[in-house]
Specification:
By secondary structure, this protein is mainly beta. The chain is built from 1 helix and 12 strands; from the N terminus they run E-E-E-E-E-E-E-E-E-E-E-E-H. Strands 1, 2, 3, 4, 5, 6, 7, 8, 9, 10, 11 and 12 form a 12-stranded parallel beta sheet that branches.
Length: 125
């Protein structure tokens, strides 16, 4: 018989290529987007937008890697990594920012310890 330690392990979720979701996604775990999200994603984990992924709306998370396209207000508590293929339009608030050569970004960016304290990562039940 398996024994559990009583701790919930965070889930890993994904939105596949060719799939479109309109609305709000909430998760306690990591979330990968290879399809299209029109709306909001809120997670305590990491958001990864793959090379075929697009988000049009808002992103609230602990960490994020963006390789695809985002037209969004982005709030990342810790580290936001913008990959070389990424195209971002919108405002960013993050603790730390890493941008690879070739990435495209149009908008405003606030980062550092002061921003980190003000970024609201959702508390989910």
């Amino acid at each position: 018989m398996a024994k559990t330690n009583g701790l919930d392990t965070p889930s890993r979720n994904s939105l596949g290529n060719g799939t479109t979701v309109k609305g709000e996604i909430e998760s306690n775990g990591d979330f990968r987007i290879d399809g299209t999200l029109i709306g909001t994603i809120k997670t305590k984990g990491k958001v990864v937008i793959g090379s075929t992924g697009t988000v049009d709306g808002e992103i609230y998370c602990q960490n994020a890697d963006i390789e695809g396209e985002a037209k969004a207000q982005i709030q990342v508590k810790e580290l936001l990594t913008i990959k070389s293929n990424a195209k971002i339009t919108g405002d960013i608030s993050t603790g730390k920012l890493a941008i690879e050569s070739g990435a495209q970004f149009s908008g405003t960016c606030k980062m550092g310890a002061e921003v980190k304290e003000n970024v609201k990562v959702p508390i989910l039940n």
